[in-house]
Design a protein that fits this description.
mainly alpha; MetI-like fold; 12 helices
Length: 282
């Protein structure tokens, strides 16, 4: 009885995970091999037909391309801005008051919810908004076929860089000062100290944060949906919005399940890379 006692403690959590995670995933995978489930009372198995339909859909190709652009640009910008601002906040040149003020300003975007960020930037990028007023233009940033995707990418960069900044700042504060003093004695320049001391010390954090950000950003839905809805004419369509539209606009739940499974596989690949990195780091 005592040997079984620990299992009783973890049983509620295991059951909850099974009901809320395993069961839905298994059902969605099963739906992806049937004809239009939910809308059809007696769905039949269609094998890989749904996967062929989705993988040959031009809108799906556009969604994949947009997601890659959105994700890669966002992650690179998050890393660069996060490292830049973290280095600034770790600089001994700033006084305590200035440091507190800058930290408050830089972390501000991370405090807003996605809904607030979407509404805020829709107002700022409105043809009659502040951005056009300052630039002296009348551009419809979120409706322009050439500017909509860069605009939502910029919004995501603005909203996400503080997470990198805080994590990298913690890493910078953990770098031993003796390493920088030894590098100075050896005559290393600022750039040499940065590339040979700072970056190697931050490498584990950078890799972990990059993998996590790739997973999170590739699954971004709320920001896209509340700013452009995937439009205009699918120029900001992402895998997440494509899946949502298949289910709740076209009522093609089987195709939506198929797109969700494909997205799940891609996310699992990134997840496996993250777990392997964590194990290697430990």
């Amino acid at each position: 009885m005592r040997r079984a006692q620990p299992y009783f403690y973890v049983a509620p959590t295991v059951v909850l995970l099974f009901v809320l995670l395993v069961v839905p995933v298994v059902l969605v995978i099963g739906y992806s091999f049937m004809d239009n489930v939910i809308m059809n009372k007696n769905p039949q198995s269609v094998g890989l037909a749904n996967y062929v339909t989705v993988l040959t859909d031009t809108n799906f190709h556009r969604a994949v391309t947009n997601t890659l652009f959105f994700t890669i640009v966002s992650v690179i910008a998050h890393l660069v801005l996060g490292l830049l601002f973290a280095s600034l906040l770790n600089s001994p040149l700033l006084g305590r008051t200035s440091m507190t003020l800058f930290r408050m300003v830089y972390v501000l975007p991370w405090l807003f919810t996605t809904a607030v960020i979407a509404i805020l930037w829709r107002m700022l990028l409105n043809p009659n908004g502040v951005i056009n007023y300052l630039l002296g233009t009348n551009i419809e940033w979120l409706s322009d076929l050439n500017l909509a995707l860069p605009a939502v990418t910029f919004i995501n960069v603005w909203a996400g860089y503080p997470f990198f900044m805080i994590s990298l700042l913690a890493g910078l504060q953990g770098v031993p000062a003796d390493l920088y003093e030894a590098a100075k004695i050896d005559g290393a320049s600022f750039w040499q100290r940065f590339t040979n001391v700072t970056l190697p010390q931050l490498k584990p954090i950078i890799i972990s944060m990059t993998l996590l950000d790739l997973i999170w950003t590739s699954q971004q839905f709320a920001l896209i949906w509340m700013t452009t809805g995937g439009g205009p004419i699918n120029v900001t369509e992402m895998l997440s919005t494509y899946t949502y539209k298949q289910a709740f606009s076209n009522y093609e739940f089987a195709l939506a399940s198929t797109a969700a499974v494909i997205t799940l596989v891609l996310s699992m690949i990134l997840g496996i890379l993250y777990v392997r990195h964590q194990k290697a780091r430990d």
